[in-house]
Amino acid sequence: MELRTLRYFLKVYEVGSVSGAAKHCFVSQPSITSAIKNLESVLNTTLFVRHARGVAPTPAAQQLYPEAKRMIDSEKNILQTFRDQPVTVPLRLGIMRSLGAKRMSLLLQHLSQDIEHLELTLVDADEPCDARILVGSSRVSDDQFVPIWEDTYQLALPHHWAEAQKGSLNFEDLDGMPFIHREPCIALDSLKDSLLQRGIQFNARANIRTIDYAWPLVQAGVGAALLPNWAEITGSECIALRLIEGFDCSLSVGMAVNISQRSIPLMNQVIASCRRFADTI
């Protein structure tokens, strides 16, 4: 089994495409295809299943990935022993949407300073990666979850609205209220379920996908929005934050590491580093 073949396998796994892997590796697509077929023959298993947009890894590929990554990393370490430049430590980190750019930047800065020569690659949370930053309820059963933040959700209102003059709101106050509808949002889905159970209408005035647009739209008076207690939100003087009586939504946000990755020394470093970061908050 050649290390070059394993490098091709890793790249196909990470980008989800034979053609994409060929571009990254600066080789022809048939070279990648041939290498993967030879590897499947040696291992007597199927590693990828083709679909319209590329390839999907099989359970065998998911099992092979951390082992192959460890071997390639070991090769880099051996080569670097005889070179002057330090070996970079690659970490593919999947990031769930709308987790807060400011605090995520602080976490990534902490990881980079805490783990020597760390080379971060940020991808979407549903892409192949070494670990994920996400809401705890989104993790899979065989993930180890390290809590970092606890997000408590409140209703953000334009200051000039009559409801903003109240100390808190009840569900009836929300009947017909124009809302900034964000999807996906676990907290908002929970609120909509609570309203539906009470026969209260949810009135979507604007539809967005990322939280970054939410409070500027509230400030502009477009509608109300259910928002977490991030410092940049609670510190805004242009919106009013109010609790909803009978509705308590707190979501734990942290790092999820699949159990298959726990044998990789780097992942133990990452877990320990996240715990140290959480202790400083």
From TrEMBL:
In terms of Gene3D superfamilies, this protein maps to: Periplasmic binding protein-like II, Winged helix-like DNA-binding domain superfamily/Winged helix DNA-binding domain
Question: Is the keyword Nuclease assigned to this protein?
Answer: no
* UniProt-listed PROSITE patterns: HTH_LYSR (PS50931)
* Gene Ontology molecular function terms on file: DNA binding; DNA-binding transcription factor activity
- InterPro entries from the UniProt entry: LysR_HTH_N (IPR000847), LysR_subst-bd (IPR005119), WH-like_DNA-bd_sf (IPR036388), WH_DNA-bd_sf (IPR036390)
Name of protein: Transcriptional regulator
Please report the stretch or stretches of sequence annotated as the HTH lysR-type domain. Answer: 1-58
Q: Which species is this record about?
A: Vibrio penaeicida
Quick one: a GO cellular component term? protein-DNA complex
Source species taxonomy: Bacteria, Pseudomonadati, Pseudomonadota, Gammaproteobacteria, Vibrionales
Q: SUPFAM superfamilies, from UniProt?
A: Periplasmic binding protein-like II, Winged helix' DNA-binding domain
Which family does the record claim for this protein?
Belongs to the LysR transcriptional regulatory family.
- Where does the source fall among the domains of life? Bacteria
Q: Which UniProt keywords apply?
A: Activator, DNA-binding, Transcription, Transcription regulation
Q: Which Pfam families is this protein grouped with?
A: HTH_1 (PF00126), LysR_substrate (PF03466)
Segments passing through the bilayer: none
